[in-house]
């Protein structure tokens, strides 16, 4: 939603400007990272507010480490947010993918560029063209996530942020 996008943008800018903040962690709520953008917003001709692509670029360009704590699902725009992060921790039961292609939409926040850089062209093309959801264990093997955990992803993300 626009409210979530605006909160991400505001939070990241505030964290970047605050010298006491050493790292940023992005997580979802209620056991889900993000199921992606609200496609109903695509039909609004003059949408006001933040857009996902520039926010993902803002995350990626942060001078402070940004860690994604992925639980449940990171799909579509949610995966693109995670791809913009410098590090990704996933719960062992998490699933990731770009399912928007199954309804004829291409990932719109540069996921088609970031994913191949991270996991290689063949694996990225498979995910991008099929829209399949991959489990965390496969994401780890591909290099999509840095670590998978069975415990709380937020705690694991904080540990990683402290380490880096």
Key descriptive features of the protein:
alpha/beta; four-stranded parallel β-sheet; three-stranded mixed β-sheet; 7 helices; 7 strands; globular; Enoyl-CoA_hydra/iso; enoyl-CoA hydratase activity; (3S)-3-hydroxyacyl-CoA dehydrogenase (NAD+) activity; multifunctional enzyme
Task: Give a topology summary.
Layout: H1 2-17, E1 24-27, H2 52-60, E2 66-70, E3 73-75, H3 77-84, E4 87-91, E5 95-97, H4 111-119, H5 121-130, E6 134-135, H6 136-142, E7 147-149, H7 153-163
Parallel strand pairs: 1-2, 2-4, 3-5, 4-7
Antiparallel strand pairs: 5-6
Helix pairs in contact: 1-2, 2-3, 3-4, 4-5
Catalytic activity: a (3E)-enoyl-CoA = a 4-saturated (2E)-enoyl-CoA; (3S)-hydroxyhexanoyl-CoA = (2E)-hexenoyl-CoA + H2O; (3S)-hydroxydecanoyl-CoA = (2E)-decenoyl-CoA + H2O; (3S)-hydroxyhexadecanedioyl-CoA + NAD(+) = 3-oxohexadecanedioyl-CoA + NADH + H(+)
GO molecular function, one term: delta(3)-delta(2)-enoyl-CoA isomerase activity
Organism: Promerops cafer (Cape sugarbird)
């Amino acid at each position: 939603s626009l409210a979530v996008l605006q909160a991400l943008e505001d939070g990241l800018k505030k964290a970047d400007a605050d010298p006491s903040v050493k790292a940023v962690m992005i997580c979802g709520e209620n056991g889900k990272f993000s199921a992606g953008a609200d496609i109903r917003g695509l039909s609004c001709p003059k949408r006001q507010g933040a857009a996902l692509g520039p926010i993902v670029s803002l995350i990626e360009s942060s001078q402070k480490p940004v860690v994604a704590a992925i639980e449940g699902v990171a799909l579509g725009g949610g995966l693109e947010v995670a791809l913009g992060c410098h590090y990704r921790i996933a719960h062992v039961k998490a699933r990731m993918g770009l399912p928007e292609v199954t309804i004829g939409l291409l990932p719109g926040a540069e996921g088609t560029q970031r994913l191949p850089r991270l996991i290689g062209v063949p694996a990225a093309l498979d995910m991008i063209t099929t829209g399949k959801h991959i489990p965390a264990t496969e994401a780890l093997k591909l290099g999509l996530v840095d670590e998978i955990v069975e415990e709380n992803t937020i705690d694991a993300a904080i540990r990683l942020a402290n380490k880096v």
